[in-house]
Design goal:
Blueprint (H helix, E strand, L loop, with lengths): L1 H68 L3 H5 L7 H17 L3 H12 L6 H15 L5 H11 L7 H14 L3 H12 L6 H13 L14
Helix pairs in contact: 3-4, 4-5, 5-6, 6-7, 7-8
Amino acid sequence: MANQNDNFIDEVFDDLRRERLFRLFRRWGWVAGLLILGVVAGVIWREYSQSRDQAQARAWGDAVLAAEASDDPAAIMQVDPQGADGRRLLAALLAASAWSEKGSDDAAADALRNVAGDRTAGTVLHDLAELKLVMLQGDAMDPAQRDEILSRLSRAGAPFELLALEQKAIALVGAGRPEDAITLIRQIQQKDGLTEALRLRLSEMMIALGVEPEATESMPAG
């Protein structure tokens, strides 16, 4: 008899729980539905945005390649000139390189100055534009301005620290200070992150200065 009573009580409680759940679902089920719809809509929007951004990036890249093929650097800067700042500034850097290859150093320098002076340029693009400007103008740049730029670009942890230090060594050679250049080159060679191309350039610079580089300063054979 006790078992029958227990079973009856359990059934009553089960019915009560089902009834409560049913009432809760009728009252708040729409909230769960909205949450599910929100999650699904978010996933769809993310996939759409990624697909759209990839398509735009491909279209921009194709347009830049077509402009480069036209042999008119100015055409590169006309690719989506009102578009995203990063792409606009990158187009200016590419145009500057194209002008430099054609011997139009003044046009290249103007493009690089525009990038370096653009407030929307991030650290990397800004520093790259200044470094390329120093490399383009070399001794023709005001020595004080050149030294100021290279001092900033060669600070520890800067994006182009090693390349800026290399340009410092070149500036020292041009200023008739070969011993200082050799000292700086040896310091650069001890730093982490040297590429083989940079290591080879430094070794060649040492040879040009009349110093036979040590085995560790030369690019490995093979």
